[in-house]
C-alpha cells in the first residue's frame, strides 16, 4: 500500500484547483473538515447557508455559509 493520505492537505489542494472564475462565488464561505458527519448521517459533504440565487439586497452582515467535509 502507498503512503497515508493527508486528508486536510487533499481538501486544500482540491480547493486550490478550482477554476479562478469560481473564486468569486466562494466569498463568505467557511470550509471545515469534520471528523464525523452531522448527526451520523451518511454524508461526504454538507452545504449550510443561503444559495446565491436567494441572496438579495438584504444579504449583508450575516455569518459565512459553511461547507462541511
Describe this entry's structure for a reader.
There is one protein chain. It contains one helix and three strands. It is of the alpha+beta class and about 70 residues long. The mean pLDDT is about 85. The longest helix is centred in the N-terminal third of the chain and has 10 residues.
Give the helices and strands as they follow along the chain. Answer: HEEE
Low-confidence stretches: none
Quickly count the helices: 1
Q: What separation lies between the terminal Cα atoms?
A: 25 Å
Overall pLDDT score: 84
* Strand residues, percent: 15-25%
Major sheet: size, sense and barrel closure? 3 strands, mixed
The coarse overall form would be flat
List key phrases describing it.
3-stranded mixed sheet; alpha+beta; flat; 16% strand; 69 residues; 1 helix; 3 strands; single chain
Secondary-structure blueprint of this entry?
Elements lengths: L6 H10 L12 E4 L13 E3 L16 E4 L1
Summarize the structure.
With 69 residues, this protein is α+β, with helices and mostly antiparallel strands. The protein is 14% helix and 16% strand. The protein has a three-stranded mixed β-sheet with strand order 1-3-2, with no helix packed on it.
Amino acid at each position: 500500500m502507498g503512503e497515508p493520505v493527508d486528508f486536510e492537505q487533499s481538501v486544500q489542494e482540491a480547493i486550490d484547483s478550482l477554476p479562478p472564475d469560481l473564486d468569486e462565488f466562494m466569498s463568505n464561505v467557511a470550509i471545515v473538515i469534520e471528523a464525523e458527519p452531522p448527526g451520523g448521517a451518511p454524508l461526504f459533504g454538507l452545504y449550510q447557508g443561503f444559495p446565491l440565487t436567494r441572496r438579495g439586497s438584504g444579504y449583508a452582515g450575516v455569518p459565512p455559509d459553511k461547507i462541511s467535509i
